[in-house]
Structures are given as structure tokens and as C-alpha cells.
UniProtKB/TrEMBL annotation:
Residues 5-343 form the FAD-binding domain. It holds the Pfam family FAD_binding_3. Its cofactor is FAD. InterPro entries: FAD-bd (IPR002938), FAD/NAD-bd_sf (IPR036188), RIFMO-like (IPR050641). It comes from the Bacteria. The lineage of its organism: Bacteria, Pseudomonadati, Pseudomonadota, Gammaproteobacteria, Pseudomonadales. It comes from Pseudomonas wuhanensis. Keywords: FAD, Flavoprotein, Membrane, Transmembrane, Transmembrane helix. The chain crosses the membrane at residues 6-27. This is FAD-dependent oxidoreductase.
């Protein structure tokens, strides 16, 4: 009987990234998908800064940036006129190497991931469907329907459900998926067009009750329109055509549509699964959480799930930790998913709320408040950190400990950059490591050497203080570059105790 370390159900971005990360870490994976081919159309567009930072570990960041489109500003429109412009490149400067919004359509994104996965000798098994599975002692036994209709029984140590909002994995586990469905119908249109909103920047129309945004694509005049319909047109979702919604874009955003390359409609839910882990089975991406497309968070959150789980599975499978480590996947990711769904729901509810009061707030007050708000550096930075997911942290959770400077255990390591370089170079290696900014003890150096734990000691520079890093303390970093320990001392016994208490043995020596 075929047996793998991890059986991955679903070959969207979440499943592909999980397969890639695990393969890089030496884990034997099998990935199946019931579709006959990768998608040729897509809804997800945005690749946020935090995803690009983590993609450096797979040497993917440069390829995404090279082949995508860099969005340097977001514009807000009311009554056919731009009322505010948010310069993304300026507000993110100094916070990340990727101080912009990257547009890279999901279908192109998937092709890149598949190509990189094939370099590890892993091919997505198409037209292959999970029918059932059960946990059996030391693993999972799954029954698959193969392309020729035959059935196969296979085994794996763990199973990852990356199979979307209608997940068979979630249904088999009988995990609740509470939430609701937005009353609006969403539409997506890829167009070739002309006008002031087709200048390579993001544009959002705040008029009336229907939401409309223009996302630029690579290539002159190419863009994706994402909008909503709520009136009697929403009753005929199956027959809705671009002509039924195009007049709004033409009138409000002064667009001249030359060609429609693709048009689709769909409904959106806002839900979070009750559990992200049941025994040896895990839920990731849309199988675990779905929400409105406000802020371009969905695909990035699924990728974040995959990266969080990958290093933990690899550590456990290699004997570097007890299975207790896997409990932290749900703890860390479900908390973020719940906050994210609540946040995107509030934003979407604001831009689509109906009635005279909502129209007054959106069309009269927002044009006044948005420019005022983004004139404050702190407000601009907060907005960028939130959307870019660089503010995401695991503070107060089981794998997070201590505080040093402005950095807490559970935080993303701050990026510090000046003319002498930056502190992210060593993060390309997805291993546990220690960072020291300033000086450290001979004991720390000797202990890290003895235990084969990489130690990076940076000469103290003003850029580190600006980033909020503490001088002469240390930061123990997880393989996913989040801070495990933030500590003012230079005592390696703190690290030794941390690993012992959590049943982690990431090094041998």
C-alpha cells in the first residue's frame, strides 16, 4: 500500500505552498486535486509583503515581483472624482523589503508553484478525488478515486485539507463552519480599458451601496474589476452579464471598456471552522476560513497557514519534537482567522452598507476623513502593517516567550536596513536560529556552536534601534522567522529550557 508522510488534498496556492515547503524540508508528500488542470481564471490577486518575505525561503519572491505588477498607491473615488490617494510605497518604506502591493493573478501564481514543485520531483495528481479517510493508529488511511474511475487505498502519517470552502476533509471530520453569506452577488471582470483609473494603481469607488474596485494587472490598460450587485439583479446570478454592471464603472470611474476577457459571478461567505486540527488531519486555507475579498487577504492567509504547519510537521516527522508541537497550529492560526474575518467583514460592511446614513458617511464624511487620517504617519503605518500582514503576531501563545526592546515573543522579526545591509539575509534558511544585535556572551557562542544552532551576531547600528530591537539581548527565531524568545540576557540556558519545556529537539550534538 502506498504510504507518504503527508497527503495533501487540493492543489490551489495553499496546498502547493504546503507541498513545496515540506519537500524543501525533506518530507515525502503526495498532492492530489479533483480538477483536470490548473485554473486558467482566478479571483485572488494580491500577494502581500509578509508573503513575499516568507517566499524568500523558497527563492520565489524575485519571480513573483518580476512577473507581477507593483501597485504603489490606492485611490478613493466619490461622485466620479478622486478624493484621496494612499501612497503605499511611502508608508511601507523602512518596514519591509516589499513596501508595495504586488498583483500576481492566482492562475499565474499556481503555475509558478507547480513548476517549482516539479523541480522536487513532485507532480500534482489530477482527476484524483478523496472519497473518504479515517485515522488508523499511527496514520491516516484514505480512499481515492483515480482518473480511470478505479479506487486506491493509501496511507499517510498526516492529511492536510486544502480543498476549499466545500472541503470534503472538513465535512468528513464533521467540523462546524459557522458564519454567514453576504447578500450581495460579487462579480469579477478582467478587462482591457482606458481612462484615469487604468493608470497602474488601485482605485476604489465609495458611491452608493454597490462596491467597486479596479485592480491593475501587468500590461497597459489591463485591470480586474471586482464589484457587488445587491438589487433585483442579484436574483439572477446565473444569467448576470457584464453589460448589467458595466455602466457603473463607466460612469463613476470614467472608464472606457475596450474588451472583456473574462466575467464571472459568485457569492461570498464569512466563516471560520470550529477546529483547524482533528487528530492527524488539518484544515488550511478556504477549507478553514472564508471571508470577503476586502483587503486582498484570503490567499495570503491560506499561504500563511501552509507555512505555519509545514515546519511543525517537518519537525515532528524528523523526530525533532513531540506531536504536542502540532497543537500550536490551530492555536496560532484560528485566532488570526477569527480576527481577519471580523476585520474584513467590518470593512466590507462599511463600503457596501445601504441607506441614507450609510451613504452620508461614505460619500460625505469618508472623503473628508480619509485624507486627514492618512496625513498622520502612525495611521498610514498602521494601515500598511495591517493589510500587508506584517503586524500578524502570535503573542501570548504557547511558542512565544519574553520581550526585548519593542519586540515580543510571537512577533515577526522587524526588518532593519541601512547602507550596511539588512538583518533578513539569514532568514532565507528555514531553521531555528539566534539573532544578537550588539554583543553576546562566550557561553552563548559556545552553546550555539555545540548544539549546531546558527547564531547571527550583528554589530550594533542605529538602524536596529529604529526597528525596535534590543541591544546585547537575543532573539530565538522559529523556522518561519517569527520570534520564539525575546530576551535581554545572553544566557543560553533560557533557550535550553524553552526547548525542553516544549518537547522540541531541533538540533543534535
Amino acid at each position: 500500500m502506498n504510504r507518504n508522510d503527508v497527503l495533501i488534498i487540493g492543489a490551489g496556492p495553499t496546498g502547493l505552498v504546503l507541498a513545496l515547503w515540506l519537500s524543501k524540508l525533506g518530507v515525502q508528500v503526495r498532492i492530489i486535486d479533483k480538477t483536470s488542470a490548473p485554473g486558467t481564471t482566478s479571483r485572488a490577486l494580491a500577494v502581500q509583503a509578509r508573503t513575499l518575505e516568507l517566499y524568500r525561503q523558497l527563492d520565489l519572491s524575485d519571480a513573483v515581483v518580476l512577473n507581477g505588477h507593483r501597485v504603489c498607491a490606492a485611490n478613493f473615488w466619490v461622485k466620479g472624482e478622486p478624493v484621496a490617494r494612499l501612497p503605499l510605497s511611502t508608508i511601507g518604506e523602512g518596514l519591509t523589503p516589499y513596501a508595495f502591493l504586488e498583483i500576481y493573478p492566482q492562475d499565474e501564481h499556481e503555475r509558478l508553484l507547480i513548476e517549482r514543485l516539479e523541480a522536487f520531483g513532485i507532480t500534482v495528481e489530477r482527476n484524483t478525488e478523496l472519497q473518504s479517510f479515517e485515522e488508523t493508529g499511527d496514520g491516516i488511511t484514505a480512499r481515492l478515486r483515480l482518473p480511470d474511475g478505479q479506487q486506491e487505498t493509501c496511507q499517510a502519517c498526516y492529511l492536510a485539507g486544502c480543498d476549499g470552502a466545500r472541503s470534503i476533509v472538513r465535512k468528513t471530520l464533521d467540523t462546524g463552519f459557522p458564519g454567514g453569506t453576504y447578500q450581495q452577488i460579487f462579480y469579477v471582470a478582467d478587462v482591457q480599458a482606458r481612462g484615469p483609473t487604468f493608470n497602474g494603481e488601485l482605485h476604489v469607488d465609495l458611491d452608493e451601496a454597490d462596491f467597486l474596485a479596479v485592480f491593475p494587472l501587468a500590461g497597459e490598460g489591463r485591470a480586474r474589476l471586482i464589484g457587488t450587485v445587491r438589487d433585483e439583479r442579484a436574483e439572477r446570478v446565473e444569467t448576470l452579464q457584464f453589460e448589467d454592471v458595466s455602466s457603473r464603472a463607466i460612469e463613476h470611474l470614467k472608464a472606457q471598456i475596450d474588451q472583456v476577457n473574462w466575467f464571472s459571478t459568485y457569492r461570498v461567505h464569512h466563516r471560520v471552522a470550529d477546529h483547524f486540527r482533528t487528530g492527524r488531519a488539518f484544515l488550511l486555507g478556504d477549507a478553514a476560513h472564508v471571508h470577503s475579498p476586502a483587503g486582498g487577504q484570503g490567499m495570503n492567509t491560506g499561504i500563511g497557514d501552509a507555512i505555519n504547519l509545514a515546519w511543525k510537521l517537518a519537525t515532528v516527522l524528523s523526530g525533532g519534537a513531540t506531536t504536542k508541537l502540532l497543537d500550536s497550529y490551530e492555536t496560532e492560526r484560528i485566532a488570526f482567522a477569527r480576527r481577519l474575518v471580523a476585520t474584513t467583514d467590518r470593512v466590507f460592511s462599511f463600503v457596501t452598507a445601504d441607506g441614507p446614513i450609510a451613504d452620508l458617511v461614505r460619500m460625505r464624511m469618508a472623503p473628508f476623513l480619509i485624507p486627514k487620517m492618512i496625513s498622520f504617519e502612525a495611521a498610514r503605518e498602521f494601515m500598511f502593517r495591517t493589510v500587508s500582514q506584517t503586524t500578524l503576531n502570535y503573542r501570548g501563545m504557547p511558542l512565544s516567550e519574553g520581550v526585548a526592546g519593542q519586540v515580543h515573543g510571537g512577533d515577526r522579526l522587524p526588518w532593519a536596513h541601512d547602507g550596511e545591509g539588512d538583518n533578513f539575509e539569514s532568514l532565507k534558511n528555514p531553521t531555528w536560529q539566534v539573532h544578537v544585535y550588539g554583543d553576546t556572551s562566550d557561553e552563548m557562542i559556545a552553546w550555539c556552536t555545540e548544539h549546531h544552532l546558527p547564531l547571527q551576531v550583528f554589530d550594533w547600528r542605529p538602524a536596529f534601534e529604529t526597528a525596535g530591537l534590543a541591544r546585547n539581548g537575543f532573539y530565538l527565531l522559529r523556522p518561519d522567522t517569527y520570534v520564539a524568545i525575546a530576551e535581554y540576557s545572553a544566557d543560553p540556558k533560557v533557550i535550553e529550557r524553552y526547548f525542553r519545556d516544549r518537547g522540541i529537539r531541533p538540533f543534535f550534538g
